[in-house]
Design brief:
This protein is α+β, with helices and mostly antiparallel strands. The protein has a domain of 184 residues: Coagulation Factor XIII, Chain A, domain 1 (Distorted Sandwich), CATH 2.70.50. Helices cover 27% and strands 21% of the residues. The chain contains 6 helices and 10 strands. Strands 2, 3, 5, 6, 9 and 10 form a 6-stranded mixed sheet that branches. Strands 1-4-8-7 form a 4-stranded antiparallel sheet. A hairpin with a 2-residue loop joins strand 7 and strand 8. The N terminus is likely disordered.
């Protein structure tokens, strides 16, 4: 009988091991860039003292805010909208984290640029495999109202599976939503693939205006080879032909110059006639004197 007991215990242990579900693994994490409310208000980071929203959350949740990596719900299996109730998205419906659900407009926010590429960091205390889905709030979002599923866009703007882990965080790059301005919220869902847990986090952000590229200037038309460059320079930079035609005197015109030329010509003719007439008269007087003397 003493031989059969160990054998029975072994068989019982195998049966129990196969019948009991595996305990959830410690796959903990939250979005760190842009900072989530859980990581931003974590005690010891300074924001819990400088931010009025973090102080208000601490009054509701107390020491639970130190558990920034524990906003997880088991056995969701992609049924997020059914499992997480409206108004409790940031706490994942967990009572001790209700301080993160407070509808306020002064949560610490990360400034972003719409349509820009951004490097995201999902901080983890224990790594695990899984996929991340990032949603953005719709236009007209009001942070002073409880966050509901209808306030989020229907489809995630970014999805990533098993991103690389660097320095204690999953790091991945993606394009931010287009056309967003002002205050918004990024809602991150991390569904692990080798545990039954799904993690949730809220990141408050502010979108500035999109950067505009400077307009390209049209190239200036090239000068033709026949036209000299300014300053008597040829297009190639060597001295070109210089225009030496005198410019008319100020206050005169070519027509007036022509009038003066005609006037001078007429005066010359009149003077010649006058000289000829006077000369003829002198000769006539001399002839008369000679005749009298004879």
């Amino acid at each position: 009988m003493g031989v059969r007991v160990p054998a029975f215990a072994t068989v019982l242990g195998i049966l129990l091991g196969t019948a009991l579900p595996a305990a959830p693994a410690g796959a903990h994490g939250a979005l760190e860039n842009p900072a989530s409310r859980a990581t931003g208000c974590e005690p010891g980071r300074g924001a819990e003292r400088s931010s009025a929203a973090c102080r208000a959350a601490a009054k509701v949740s107390g020491a639970a805010l130190a558990e920034w990596d524990e906003l997880r719900v088991p056995n969701v299996n992609g049924r997020d909208r059914r499992m997480i109730p409206d108004g409790e998205l940031c706490s994942a419906g967990i009572e001790r984290f209700r301080g993160l659900d407070l509808p306020r407009a002064d949560w610490p926010a990360t400034r972003l640029t719409a349509a820009a590429r951004h490097t995201f960091r999902y901080r983890v205390s224990i790594p695990h495999r899984g996929g991340l889905r990032l949603y953005i709030t719709r236009d007209g979002y009001r942070p002073t109202r409880p966050l509901t599923w209808s306030a989020l866009e229907a489809e995630p703007f970014l999805k990533v599976k098993d991103p690389p882990r660097r320095n204690g965080a999953y790091v991945f790059t993606g394009r931010l939503p287009r056309g967003k301005t002002g205050r918004h919220l990024i809602y991150t869902v991390w569904q692990t693939s080798d545990t039954p847990d799904t993690y949730y986090s809220c990141s408050d952000v502010t979108f500035g205006a999109a950067r505009k590229r400077p307009a390209k200037q049209a190239p200036s038309p090239e000068r033709s080879e026949a036209s000299p460059a300014p300053g008597g320079q040829a297009p190639g930079g060597s001295p070109g032909p210089v225009d030496v035609t005198p410019s008319p005197v100020a206050g005169t015109s070519p027509a007036s110059d022509r009038s003066w030329e005609l006037l001078l010509a007429a005066g010359g003719i009149a003077g010649a006639v006058l000289i000829f007439t006077i000369g003829g008269a002198v000769m006539a007087v001399r002839r008369m004197r000679i005749r009298r003397e004879l």
